[in-house]
Structure formats: structure tokens, C-alpha cells
Amino acid sequence: MGEYGTPNIDIEEGYITITHNGRTDTLPYPKQASSFYHLSKVHDSNNIAFTCKAWGIRATDLNQGVVYGVRTDETEMHEELYNRFDYDGIFGTALNRFCVQAAVGHPLTVYGKGGQTRGYLDIRDTVQCVELAIANPAQRGEFRVFNQFTEQFSVNELAKLVTKAGEKLGLDVQTISVPNPRVEAEEHYYNAKHTKLIELGLKPHLLSDSLLDSLLNVAIEFKDRVDTKQIMPNVSWRKIGVKPKTVAA
Amino acid sequence: MGEYGTPNIDIEEGYITITHNGRTDTLPYPKQASSFYHLSKVHDSNNIAFTCKAWGIRATDLNQGVVYGVRTDETEMHEELYNRFDYDGIFGTALNRFCVQAAVGHPLTVYGKGGQTRGYLDIRDTVQCVELAIANPAQRGEFRVFNQFTEQFSVNELAKLVTKAGEKLGLDVQTISVPNPRVEAEEHYYNAKHTKLIELGLKPHLLSDSLLDSLLNVAIEFKDRVDTKQIMPNVSWRKIGVKPKTVAA
């Protein structure tokens, strides 16, 4: 979903019908990536769209939101199947990071004003969406785009949810605002469509108290493995030439 | 200009204001590149737009149309300063190719129906536009897009102009339709804006009889250097795995 940026109009699934000077066309939805990571996805989308047109390839572009959670039915079968759980400033995603921060007693790190709103989904829904896309392939020559998320949250909303869930487990959860290392709007309109995967049969696992409890409990269970030096963001998009800090061994 | 493709609405200069579900925003104009050559430019534009936002870089993205002509005031000062004149299916551009074809007695090669319409400009205006963009830089953090062409023509219109100009010089100019090696619309709406460079002071050299005469005369003067095996297109976007024919030395 980071391909879209935060336009001041509704985000559609890949295409938008535009009426302009009395004529109408349905065109690729304008992309406004805000990192080279997201730009690389924009480039992929543009390249693949062309190959569909030129050579009749079938493609489904899953524009995925921010994933949270760590367990699926399969990984839960044995501890050795547990997945990685990223909590650092580069690979960690907002909700997962907040759970680890709450577990180790670190204040939740809200970047800037915290009004940044994005689409989120449970890791179990990620797997379900990929399965649905494969089971229901695109038409020949079709470049199909699905917005793959189930709910929208702002960073401040997530911080509040984790604070409340932490209190129930006896944790004293604080929140701090840290200077935003990214270049992004911190207060903005956000309304992204996400109906196509639902139409194919996606049954969302919405964010619930029990999921939050279980995420926090995973973080608490393994909190001795957390390297707290990885918690604060140490790559800044704002300052040219700032390099990730290397931690002495 | 190939970044834009051939949308069914007017092409603006880099950005379009869209009203959608009651809200309005000005967003990057949707791009629909129809070759990897044009895709590489789309990627450049997206990357540079991000760097302007993130680091306040000033950038002007010159979305140039199809260039014709070969001489500028400077290269005309001595024969050894003459520029290259591409007439092959890869580097050659429509009007220049037609002039060489007319000069050597090869039928003009119209791809498919010939309704393909694009923005064109004289090579002298290319130089003028680059100079104007440098002399009038973008604001700090601005990603500015100029559509750099002066007139629109369809391929059929160009073939007619060259036929007429050739007749005046005593050439018998024929036209053939060859299977289109590209994947592109052969009949389509096309109306692209190009006012920003004019506002900065561009004085266009529009396509005139005298320019066509001079182009044809250059082609006739050097026609003994033409390798006629390079005239027909030999790279097809339609067939996967078709490679350019190599010509035995």
C-alpha cells in the first residue's frame, strides 16, 4: 500500500476513472512512494503492467498493507516453527514493534504526531490472500491490483490499543513522540478501498483484544532475546549521508 | 512523452487535478509506458520526484517528444560538426527515417494503420528547451515536469508531408503499411499540453516546407552511406524471444 502514498482522495484498487475536460478514461492510480523500498515496488508494478499488455501475461499485484502478528495455524504447531519477529526500526512494523516495546518496558515510539494512517492486516490474512490470488488467477493480459489489508489504523490508535492491552497484563506502558525519521505527512486523509479480496472470499481476522493479548504474550515470553539497542530508529530519510549505526560486537 | 502512453483524456504536464468521490487532489499524471525504454524513464521520474520531496532537490523533468532534424546553427558551421542521423528501426525517429527512405527510393514504412499520434519537435528546439530549463531552475524541493514538444502529428500525416516534399524534389515517394512491431494503439485520441516551455520563452521552429526540403536534401546528399538493410524494423515487441537480426560483415 506504500506505493500510493497519502493522496487527499480515496485510494482505489490499482486504477481510477478520471473525467477531465469532458473526456473519461480509467488509468493506473497515481503512485507517490515515500521511500526507495516503496519505489522499487512502483517500478515492479509498472514493468509488470507493460508485460501484461505486450505479451498477454496474467498478473495479480498484491498491494499489501502493514502486517502484524507472528503466528499462523501451521507455525503454532511447534515452537521450532515460530516465525521471525522483527522489532527494529528497519524491518519491524508498527504494531509488532509496540508489543515488543511494551514487553521490555520501553516507551512506545510514535514517530512525530502519530496521525500516520495505513492499512493493516493479520499475518494469517496475508497467507490467505496469496492463496486466494493463486486460486483465482487474472485473465490473460490482465494486470490486476488488489489492496491487501483489512483495517485502517493511525499510529496513535495502535499505541492506545497496546497501552490498554498491556495494562490488562500488568504492564506500565508509556508513549513518547520521537522525531520522525521518515518524510511523510503526519496528519492526513486516508481512505483506501479493499473489497476485491473480500469478494474472492477473504475472511479477515480483525484486530481483537485476544490477538493483542497473544502478541504481547509472545513478546513477553521471548523478551530476554530483545536487543534494546535496535528499538530506536537509526536510519533517517531526512538527513543525507546518515548511515545506520553499527553496534560494537 | 512516451511515459504517458495514449490515454483517452488530455495529457497534462506531469500532474493532474482529480476530483473523486467529492474530494480533490493534484497527483502525478498516470503513466502508461509502452516499452522498457519508456519504462526506464518512468522509473527515473518516480525516483527523482521522491528525492525532491525527501531532500529538497530541485528537478526539471523534460518529457521530450519525438525529435526531427539534424542541424543546429552550430553544427552547420562546418561539415565535420554534422550530427549523427539515425534512420534504422531502433534509434531512428519517424520523420528522419521517412526522409532517408524517400532519398534512397525505399517506400515509407508506416507501422500498422499509421494513426499513431505523438508530439514532435525540431532538434534546435530540444537544445533551446534544455537551455531554458537550466536558466530558469525549479524551486527548492520542486519536481517540475515540462512536456517538451511543439506540434502533434500522426504517422500518416508525416508520410503525406514527406511525399509532397519529395515530389517537389523530383522523387517518386511510395508508402507501405508494415506489420506494427510495437504494441500500441494505432487509432486513438491524443491531446497533450505543452505551454510551460512556451511561457519560459521557447520560440518554436514549427515543421515547415523549407525544413522538410533541407532534411530531404541532407538525406539525398549522404544517401550513398545508407545501409538499406537497416531500414525495415527488425525488433518486435510482440514476439517473445525475437532478436535483432545481425548483418554479416
From TrEMBL, chains A, B:
- Domain of life of the native organism: Eukaryota
Under the heading Pfam families, the entry gives: Epimerase
NAD-dependent epimerase/dehydratase domain location: 25-147
**Which intervals of the chain form a coiled coil?**
none
What the record says about family reads: Belongs to the NAD(P)-dependent epimerase/dehydratase family.
Name of the protein this chain belongs to = NAD-dependent epimerase/dehydratase domain-containing protein
Q: Which organism is it from?
A: Davidia involucrata
